[in-house]
């Protein structure tokens, strides 16, 4: 086994998959002329084509680029403050235990780690949706979800500094900043999820998902109600509904790796409390508005450096690596001959 390499980000992180809120559109941005060339029609269709509005759009984009350039430093500062000052309500939820996991989920993991495990056998334990390789499975117990949400609410109500998951979600928690990466999310990915994704997504590095970004998003009336169509910076995504009581707000899924707005046709998948949806990160998806109540969702973007080192999923180019903190965006520096075409990618890492 090769020594672990430091994780990196792709330089496109600063300028790819930028969400223009006033137009409901994701864009890649290099300069104004490129923006008009690539997205002029879409901007005009959304009422953002006039010179005045376009100028405001460019300012919004450039402000987001600058914000992203400050993220690493700001996140490190927040994490240090939280570690030294935050008083946890349920300290037990920070260390993953089998008792947090649904018995049916443990049964699935047991099957996937057995010598005779195969895809058809695994599918008998899950619910599949159309041909889009979207799967529902039980993940947590109700007791754990209740304690976890109480912990998240306790943090939200505290005076701690808070980073938000991304430019689209204004309410939520970055789990690495509150100290849940090492003893909760990492073992969840390595010990429990990877045996499942190895069978479901072998072509996406399901057997060698070696990093992640994990966060919780919150939807509520008078806050974030929905989520526009997008795709994730991940090979495989886990989305678990933690509660609380809510109505409507189903997820919708479109095509794979297409322009995320608009979504021409899609299927709807209802959230079920304590259960998770596994899907390809590149699957276009979004969340319809909730009608009442409040919903918390755990999102884990899982990444395989052996896959993304070849092609960045956000800019569709060979990644140009920059320094990053922690797992970065899941890229690692590797020599050109580290990933020969004829060898199982995951066996190399």
Termini, distance in Å? 6 Å
Question: What does the radius of gyration come to?
Answer: 20 Å
Helix content: 25-40%
The computed structural class is alpha+beta
- Spans of at least 5 consecutive residues with low confidence: 335-343
Mean pLDDT: 85
Strand content: 15-25%
Keywords: Dioxygenase, Iron, Metal-binding, Oxidoreductase, Vitamin C
Protein name: 2-oxoglutarate and iron dependent oxygenase domain containing 2
GO molecular function, one term: L-ascorbic acid binding
Organism: Cairina moschata (Muscovy duck)
Explain this structure.
The chain is of the alpha+beta class and 349 residues long. It contains 8 helices and 17 strands. It has helices spanning 32-45, 51-69, 71-85, 103-112, 119-123, 142-157, 181-200, 305-308; strands at 7-10, 18-20, 25-27, 127-129, 134-138, 172-174, 211-220, 227-230, 236-243, 246-248, 251-256, 267-269, 275-280, 283-287, 290-303, 321-322, 331-332. Strands 4, 5, 6, 7, 9, 10, 13 and 15 form an 8-stranded antiparallel sheet that branches. The chain has a 4-stranded antiparallel sheet with strand order 8-14-11-12, with no helix packed on it. α4 (103-112) packs across α7 (181-200). The N and C termini lie close together (6 Å). The model is unreliable at 335-343 (pLDDT under 50).
